[in-house]
Write a structure and sequence with these properties.
Elements lengths: L2 H22 L8 H12 L4 E2 L4 E2 L6 H4 L13
Antiparallel strand pairs: 1-2
Length: 79
């Protein structure tokens, strides 16, 4: 397994784990619409974002989904 794939898997699992912990503590799983909108706007202005695939090349996540998760983090530290 390549290091790049391992990094992608680690990022996904970390985001999922954080989100599930939040959900279990009754804080919710999803960010509010304003936060999600700001996040996706920042993604769309980033050189790592592929608009055709809706994917970030830094983490290989689908950004329409990731930007909505309250515990998700940008690997480029943009949000």
């Amino acid at each position: 397994m390549s290091m790049k794939l391992l990094k992608i898997i680690k990022s996904f699992v970390t985001t999922l784990a954080r989100s599930l912990i939040k959900m279990k503590s009754n804080r919710g799983l999803l960010a509010n619409k304003d936060i999600s909108k700001i996040r996706i706007e920042k993604c769309r202005s980033c050189s790592e974002y592929n608009i055709d695939m809706d994917v970030c090349y830094a983490c290989w996540c689908n950004m329409s989904i990731k930007t909505k998760l309250i515990e998700a983090r940008c690997p480029q530290k943009k949000w």
